[in-house]
Sequence to fold (571 residues):
Amino acid sequence: MNSRERVLAMLDARAIDCLPAMPITMMFAADQIGARYYDYATNCRVQAEGQLRVAEKFGVDHVSVISDPGCEAADLGAVIKFFPDQPPAIDEENALLKDKTLLARLKPPDPLGGGRMTNRVQAVRMLRERASKDKLVEGWIEGPCGESADLRGINRLMLDFYDDPEFVRELMDFVVQMELCFAQAQIEAGVDIMGIGDPASSLVSPRFYNEFVFANQKKMIDGIHALGARVRLHICGDTRHIAEGLGRVGADIVDQDALAPLDHARRKMGLQPVLLGNIDPVRVLREGTPETITTAIAECHRQAGPRYIVGAGCEVVRDTPEANMHALVRYAREHKPSETRVASGR
Amino acid sequence: MSTLDELKEVIINGNAPAAKRLTEAALNQGTRPGDFFAGAIIPAMDEVGRRMRECEFFIPEVLIAARAARASTEILKPLLAGDSSVRPAGTVVCGTIKGDLHDIGKNIVAMMLEGAGFRIVDLGVDVGPEKLVDAVRREGADFVALSALLTTTMVNMKGAIEALIAAGLRQQVKVMVGGAPVTESWAQSIGADGYGKDAPAAVELARRFIAEAARGMSAARRGAA
Fold:
């Protein structure tokens, strides 16, 4: 059973040889090939090289085109600040929709129009060509709340929920339409599973999540399923207060960040969603030892149950010792989904 | 319910126009500007912090409450100028660390500290050592609060503290650090005075430093006597 078959079998609840491992790697992957992060985020060849190196060297089951949240915003004309060796960041103070009235004139960019979105589509194509016989190919788009925050500025968006709910609805409608178009381009280029990153949605109350975000996440997920790909939903931060909704939203994999315990997620979401995570990327994965990492992942596995994929709560951070990354994947290789055990050290 | 009690309630509920109206009404009734803080604004923001910690409030609720508090303090500030009986709890110079543009966490910490009676000098995002040192010196800061969202930028916190040492300002300020990848052990390793895991924790930390300083001064006075 190869990596791709393993993950797909897990998603379909078929028998598999061992747990899959799908940690998010970005800066870690760039460092593996000695690339500056600027090049990794802006050059599809560099990104593909880094992903292939991580997949081969550590035995991770997927390759991914996640890089930073600024691809779509950049192609829409937002001001993006680039750094030599860290992820590009959106200039929120001068966000594209600082003036809300500009939304009416905004047109979704063409994902194949030659901008940063195109670079990502090309990265998918390269990974498809070079890795898909063995590895699962993961695309990436931003979620409705995250991309709205990128376009409006997160501080402004958080106030808009109270001050101008109609604008928030219109903005999220636009985002869903744009992201589904981007998803389609990536799926046509060869994506097996689409990652949706929606970090800002952990910042709002259950009421606002249910009123504004849930339906739009669901629309995105349903749309991606209709296009023939699976969905991994990744929300940074503490999602305990919206866990019930995340269980109903329809994602095949729901990532859990380190702040959201897996046993809580399992109780709230039921047995169906595959849970992925959630050792603390800094405190456990980077600062721990292979032994403490094994113990921590065993506890995650115990809490999540058999429908579980090994990973960190968020991106594997730069300077994570290679031995620790090997320990993470080793746990997956040495355990079947049903082989959970009570960990002793956490 | 007194006007100050009403003001406290509307701040908690994030009603900025009502906060402005009630502040003006209380002033017209003869409430001294300095009495608004202990009587309404600080207890309101303490309650906001409590609700945030108890997951009753989330970021939008905290932001609108802070905005309402600010609607009140903006009226009071000019009236307090020159009133030596009303002093801020301390002056905090804050910002996101060099290379980091993610500011919502820093903004919330700044708002909560302001609501707790601290004077805030917000340097914004991407704050380098020189800018920090200049602000600490210029403003006579008691605290420095730095945030980072990225592991790549949090390393710059060390440089900021080293710059304060080089400028001879380190003993003047307590340095507090926070942000998603920041840990207590990291804070200790770079020589920060404290780590706040969230905005209410940052307020608690700053208050603890003030209480410790007050105890130290009392002990020194007793020793001198």
Q: What stands out?
A: The two ends of chain A are 32 Å apart (CA to CA). Chain A touches chain B at residues 27, 37, 81, 83, 85-87, 89-93, 154-155, 158-159, 161-162, 203-205, 208, 236-237, 240-241, 281-283, 286-287, 317-319 (CB under 8 Å). The CA atoms of residues 91 and 269 of chain A lie 36 Å apart.
